[in-house]
What does this fold into?
Amino acid sequence: MYIILEKTEVVKLLNSLKRVLNDKECRFIFRDMKDKNFTFCYLYGISIQYIKDTLSRLEVDDFVYAVENTNPNYKKELLYVFTKQVILTNAIGDEDVIQLYIKFSLDEKKKLIITISFHEAEHDFV
It folds into this structure.
C-alpha cells in the first residue's frame, strides 16, 4: 500500500536525510545489490559517492510515495521512493538522459541510510 506524504512531511524527510548525509558518523548501506542495481551501476560507473550526492540533491518534487517494507526482517521499516532525472555517461562515452528510481530507508537516530534501489525507472511516475 502506497503512502502519500504531505509536502511538509517530505521537507522534514529531506532535511533529516541531509543531516545524516552531512554527519561524519553517517553509515550508508546498499542493502540489495540486485541485478538491476548492479548492472545499472556498472554500466554507468556509479559509485557510492555518486549515490550519496544524488540523495543530497533530492527535492520535494522528486518524491513519489512511501511504502512499508514487505520483508519480514524489516517489518517496521518505511521505504521512500523518489525519481530524479539525470544525465549520465554510458560505457561507450555517450550521454544518456535517465529517470532514476531511488528507494531508501532512513534512521536518523542511528545515522543510517539504507539504499534498496538505485537504477533507471521502469515506468513513468509523472
User: Anything to note?
Assistant: The chain has three helices and six strands. The radius of gyration is 14 Å.
